[in-house]
# Entry
Amino acid sequence: DQQVKQNSPSLSVQEGRISILNCDYTNSMFDYFLWYKKYPAEGPTFLISISSIKDKNEDGRFTVFLNKSAKHLSLHIVPSQPGDSAVYFCAAVPTSGTYKYIFGTGTRLKVLA
Amino acid sequence: EAGVAQSPRYKIIEKRQSVAFWCNPISGHATLYWYQQILGQGPKLLIQFQNNGVVDDSQLPKDRFSAERLKGVDSTLKIQPAKLEDSAVYLCASGPGLAADTQYFGPGTRLTVL
# Structure
């Protein structure tokens, strides 16, 4: 039972263009969401998060959008840079109980120079 | 500030052998997590500690996996005996407290079971 889904296993984007990574969830109890970036042979590193009381959060080139009614979030990277090439995971957290992170399967982003 | 440390980075064993992984969290972090990441999947939580107590071990295969966090700092994860399907990257993460705070991940241990 995959509660957090990233339906695009990979994405290629030209340098300077926008990258849009998508994530869907099924559990309405999730109300905090995070994006992590992972380079090969390294652990995931935190990128940006959003609480369900917001629909948008911005940090530099990274913006996360949350559509609660559609149970959908997206990460926008503008402009994309070759150093952004990595695997991106979304994670969902129910802010009650143990705050367990439920991760998606990841999207491999390749930014072409 | 030093990050989460894990060792070893790589381990190759034969099935039915035992293996142990070590994690040293960020200093002062009360919460420690062990995740299993199978190739092509996202990290899956195995066990979560708050200080030296277990908060969630609902997805830990307790017939073969065990974990401890002595003195609320370092932690070890053990697999005994290993199966082929245990081949994965084992990630340790730590966080400041029991909340939706950011978790900080170590580099992971890649386990191959032959």
